[in-house]
């Protein structure tokens, strides 16, 4: 098994990416790791102590966070993102992980790695933390702001397979994001998508409202990229605001500080359940090979978990299972 990592992408690159790669290489000696980055910046961090299964793959360019995605991948052919997606396309690695420019990674995944046959649009699918601790796979959250009903149908199928094979959810419950739970609610898009998803070999639980999503009413939530991106950013913003307010309240007086000391174990447990770092990254489902987007602020632990996620993606042959189910749906 061969996994490539973008050493140059993310808020804490290259140090966090290198540290995470070294941890992963020490943990999984059966995996060959390719660290894509500028040699003059990566070599000193390895300090001659790189595990035998970790190789530096030099690149000469980096795509920054503010660059226009399509223009960047066309101009910077030797960037870590483009090279990583090209290695997946050429089957020289089995998966690629990057915490870099999200738009550039999605563009490179589509234009360089390419779509798998039978899938019209790939979907970016992160795991949202839920109150029951199980987590919920949401797709799409921004790869395609506009979608057609057949795209949402494909998302439902891909999401169900990924949740089962990688996240370990038995018979995952698939829901459709909507403004009401009743059948017949929503736009023309969601009404038609509801009808089409019903005929898939998945456990479809119907429409799901945004206010219920984090309470574990489904394991896979399907939506167009525009709605999904709003849901993602609103959820992140609300969680951040709550944590900041709690911190302010618990440090306001001596009594609240004492209360915080008592509640600390519970608060730490809650923070752990809601921590994105435990889930690793968001796969771009629908590409011809595994490409995973790690969170931009990933630390070494998040990188390590992204590698664990990539290993399961490869080992459990997610793409082959999607192919098989697509063919079964097409045959009726």
From TrEMBL:
It holds the Pfam family FA_synthesis. It catalyses: a fatty acyl-[ACP] + phosphate = an acyl phosphate + holo-[ACP]. Its main location: cytoplasm. Keywords: Acyltransferase, Cytoplasm, Lipid biosynthesis, Lipid metabolism, Phospholipid biosynthesis, Phospholipid metabolism, Transferase. GO terms for cellular component: cytoplasm. GO terms for biological process: fatty acid biosynthetic process; phospholipid biosynthetic process. The keyword Cytoplasm applies. It comes from the Bacteria. Pathway: Lipid metabolism; phospholipid metabolism. GO terms for molecular function: phosphate:acyl-[acyl carrier protein] acyltransferase activity. Its EC number is 2.3.1.274. InterPro entries: FA_synthesis, Phospholipid_synth_PlsX-like. It is found in: Cytoplasm. Belongs to the PlsX family. Catalyzes the reversible formation of acyl-phosphate (acyl-PO(4)) from acyl-[acyl-carrier-protein] (acyl-ACP). This enzyme utilizes acyl-ACP as fatty acyl donor, but not acyl-CoA. NCBIfam families: plsX (TIGR00182). Homodimer. Probably interacts with PlsY. PANTHER family: FATTY ACID/PHOSPHOLIPID SYNTHESIS PROTEIN PLSX (PTHR30100), PHOSPHATE ACYLTRANSFERASE (PTHR30100:SF1). This is Phosphate acyltransferase.
